[in-house]
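re: ur question from the group chat, yeah i did fold both. here u go
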Amino acid sequence: SEAAAAAAEIGYPLVLKPVDLCAGMFVRRVDDEAELIRACRALDGFPVNARGQRRAPVILLEELLHGPEVSVETVTFDGGTEVIGITDKSVGGAPAFIETGHMFPAALPAAVRAIEALGLDGVVAHTEIKLTPDGPRLVEVNPRPAGNRITELIRHVTGIDTAAACVDVARGQRPDLRTRETGLRSAAIGFVVPQTAGVLEAVDGADLVGAAPGVLELQLAEPGTAVKEAGSNNAYLGHVMAGDAEGPDARRRVEALLSQLRPRVVNR
């Protein structure tokens, strides 16, 4: 009832988020009170988190923002924030919000006012922003390195190890953020998102993709893996990562490679 009253005040459509889950679990678009009730009941049926810890019965209701999504990767030390770069994100799976891929770098300007406003220091941060028709809108500031292998995209392109930087700032040491020549101008990752539930027999096309030029990583689920309907980033069946030595063409290469990977899922 509290959620319904808040939703009526904010106005639909909205995004519902649990406050203590990860990987986009149970994050849903809701267009009316009936969908809000269904989303709340689905979340009530999941009383513990992915690590078996009891969840807090609290949700966030947020305005639905339209537009491309990016994340700003930063390192803050001794009161100064350095922007490592911006990651371009692909999102699908409506009414869920599943990250289907990332590319680094995105050709966009960056700002650090959110980091300063929160008073963060000694952190590697991952700040998500929607580029709406009304301008950039802040979604969330995560005082941690980016997930979904974005740290590896950064390392492949810039030579900067943001995981190592996270350790350095935690120890009170100035991190090494010097860029190095890596031979790549962009790198991207794409995720194999299942379309049906069942059991994975195989992923056809894996040998061809693994031998393709420019592939940096290929990781796929093993045959026999239980496949769930894609409701969050936890449903991935694997990923492919590729780079481009000439310019910002890594995403196109990854999308072409992903199209060659065909999971065979059967019901048993």
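okk and heres the other one u asked abt
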Amino acid sequence: MGRTAPRTDTGLFGPGSVTWRVHTEPILWVAGLRALYLQSLYPRVMRATYQNSALFDRKRAWARFLRTAEFVTVRTYGTSAEVERAAARVRAIHAALTGYDPDTGETFRLDEPEGLLWVHCAEIDSYVDIARRSGALRTDADADTYVAESRRAAEVIGIKREDAPASRAALADFFAEIRPKLYACTEARRGLVHSFHPPLPWKLAPLRLGVPSLNVLAFSSLPGWARRLYGVPALPASDLATTVTLRMVRQATGILPRPEIPTQA
């Protein structure tokens, strides 16, 4: 793992955190896709994304995707000032945009508390689930620590720390409570199909060959209830096969260079 010069301000987490250790793992790219599929099942969030985001504009989608990845990197490894600048931009964007919900006829703000919490929980559940099943997180205790640490990330985008789950059990309780509000709206299904044909720049065009397999793995890692909402059967044998595949992929990507992270002075 690469190292940069020591520094005194290590941001939200720091070199002793589970978060810093886990986020060097290439397998978390699968978790990022899983998070998008899961987040899409909350109709207001998905419709707001569809109505406002460049993710569905093939000319701008790749740049939008890279900005999201950059935000996660800054949030994870940036200094306190860097994190606050990046989070302030996100908060300002959310505060300025609205979406329209055809189910209720309402226009709503993108920074609705429940929507923000849903996006956070879907993201963190995806990271911790993929990390645990692939072996990047070796114990349930480490997994719970990761979820607890993620409350700091929730807070910087406008979620009250006490509202964010602090353990995998609390995450499960959150999903059980919100599930009656979830379904795969038309925009979610379009997003799923769109993800299999990403607008990669020409120099990355060869990666298109691997995209379907990566997407299938990410989709297969969703909870059974989430796959059923998309209309896909969920069988125990497929869950076991997905876990085995995740472990194999993590082992295969172990030779890839890891991102450089700062050390503490």
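fwiw on the second one: Strands lie at 98-101, 106-109. Residues 113-134 form the longest helix (22 residues). idk if thats what u expected
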